């Protein structure tokens, strides 16, 4: 039996000191989930139901109060270099061009300038942004900014892609375009596991293998 890419077992996360006499907030309650390598899973639910908290636990940003969170059979103890995490807003560095934003993770990892330049331009080309490599975020539409953020997230070639409502702020037409480009990128990277948080059930059904 293959080890799951992601495994949550009886996971709960409670904000507070655990003392029933004080106010405690249960963000995630007794949740279990297994995701095999290479599967695209969408997590759907209303605001405040713990979707982002699950991503944060998988990213190693917070630890569960109860239960276990595992990646490839190993307990998640902290942030990992093989995880890409994209938020709802692009959060691009305004002083860096599109190309420089994509290169950021590669630069931090010490990749040679020429190699990271080639990789960033290749990703921008795949997302139809090759003509905007030297543009700053303020010069790009929201849809373009999100595509740059996708490229930045995937430039480090993570095995696990965590996406927290990445297309929620886009208009309907732009969202369809970016969704299509994202799926093409995922399909060209076999074996990559995706966990995609969304409020939109239609989007979840369109993109994911499993909801």
What does this molecule look like?
- It comes from marine metagenome.
- InterPro entries: AAA+_ATPase (IPR003593), ABC_transporter-like_ATP-bd (IPR003439), ABC_transporter-like_CS (IPR017871), ABC_transporter_ATP-bind (IPR050166), P-loop_NTPase (IPR027417).
- This is ABC transporter domain-containing protein.
- GO terms for molecular function: ATP binding; ATP hydrolysis activity.
- With 211 residues, this protein is an alpha/beta fold.
- The protein contains six helices and eight strands, in the order E-E-E-H-E-E-E-H-H-H-E-H-E-H.
- Helix 5 links the parallel strand 7 and strand 8.
- The longest helix has 16 residues.
- It is globular and about 55 Å long.
- The model has no long low-confidence stretch (mean pLDDT 91).
Whole-number average pLDDT? 91
Number of domains: 2
Global morphology: globular
Radius of gyration: 18 Å
- Give the strand line-up of the largest sheet: 2-1-4-5
Q: Low-confidence parts, pLDDT < 50 over ≥5 residues? A: none
- CATH homologous superfamily title of the largest domain: P-loop containing nucleotide triphosphate hydrolases
Beta-strand percentage range: 15-25%
Name given to the CATH architecture of the largest domain: 3-Layer(aba) Sandwich
Q: Which CATH C-level class of the largest domain is it?
A: Alpha Beta
Helix content: 25-40%
What is the fold named in CATH at topology level of the largest domain?
A: Rossmann fold
Give the helix tally.
6
Given the helix and strand composition, which structural class is it? alpha/beta
Biggest sheet record = 4 strands, antiparallel
Distance between the termini: 23 Å
* Number of strand elements: 8
């Amino acid at each position: 039996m293959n080890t799951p890419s992601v495994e949550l077992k009886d996971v709960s996360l409670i904000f507070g000191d655990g003392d029933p006499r004080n106010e405690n907030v249960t963000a995630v309650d007794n949740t279990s989930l297994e995701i095999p390598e290479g599967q695209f899973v969408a997590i759907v639910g209303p605001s405040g139901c713990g979707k982002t908290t699950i991503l944060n636990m998988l990213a190693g940003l917070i630890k569960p109060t109860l239960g276990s969170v595992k990646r490839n059979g190993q307990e998640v103890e902290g942030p990992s270099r093989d995880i890409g995490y994209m938020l709802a807003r692009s959060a691009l560095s305004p002083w860096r061009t599109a190309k420089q934003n994509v290169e950021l993770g590669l630069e931090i990892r010490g990749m040679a300038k020429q190699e990271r330049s080639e990789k960033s331009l290749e990703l921008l080309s795949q997302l139809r942004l090759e003509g905007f490599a030297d543009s700053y975020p303020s010069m790009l539409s929201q849809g373009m900014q999100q595509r740059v953020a996708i490229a930045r997230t995937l430039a480090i070639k993570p095995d696990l892609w965590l996406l927290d409502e990445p297309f929620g702020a886009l208009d309907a037409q732009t969202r369809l375009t970016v969704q299509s480009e994202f799926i093409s990128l995922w399909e060209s990277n076999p074996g990559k596991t995706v966990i995609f948080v969304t409020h939109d059930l239609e989007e979840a059904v369109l993109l994911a293998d499993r909801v």
